[in-house]
Amino acid sequence: MIVGLGNPGDEYAGTRHNIGQMVADELASRSGTALGVHRKTRTRAATVRIGGGPATVAVPMSYMNVSGGPVSALAKYQSVEPQDVIVVHDDLDIPFGAVKLKRGGGSGGHNGLKDITKALGGPDYVRVRVGVGRPPGRMEAAAFVLKPFSAAERKELDLLISLAADAAEAVVVDGLESAQQEFHSPRA
Prior knowledge:
The protein has a single domain (2-183), classed as Rossmann fold. Strand 3 (43-50) and strand 4 form a beta hairpin. By secondary structure, the protein is an alpha/beta fold. The termini are far apart. Helix 2 packs parallel to helix 3 and helix 5 (151-174) runs antiparallel to helix 6 (176-183). It has six helices and seven strands, in the order βαβββαββαβααα. The protein has helices spanning 19-30, 68-77, 111-120, 141-145, 151-174, 176-183, and strands spanning 2-4, 36-38, 43-50, 53-60, 86-91, 99-103, 126-131.
């Protein structure tokens, strides 16, 4: 199960905080489908094909800071164990354009991850960390992630979304360790 994090509503659609939702939409699009409302779990979800098998791609319909309930509800509904959940999210500690993968760990101040960890009963899920860079100057992190990408970033945004979607698929197909070796290596 791959979950892309973000906030609902048009005012958040193109913001850094919604990169996870953008990746989820890309994964659904690759399978020729779109995310549909799954009312029982308060998510938008779709079944896609990754590596020849089915996988669920979803986004919570809640705000980022309370995504744990919908993620946990969908995992239970789909009979998916927490260690088989992959969460795609924005990460301020990674430069724009880079993608890093890990299992477990802390939230790094990311309230969406805090809520998911609480709802799933622990941090033992995989994270696809999509780099959005640090805020300029003294800008607050919360304000930065809720701003749209800059014009220069938008020129590379489709590539970043595709890279993050590739990374999520690689975790499903090849496993976390192999995907880390591929996506953590310097790119030419």
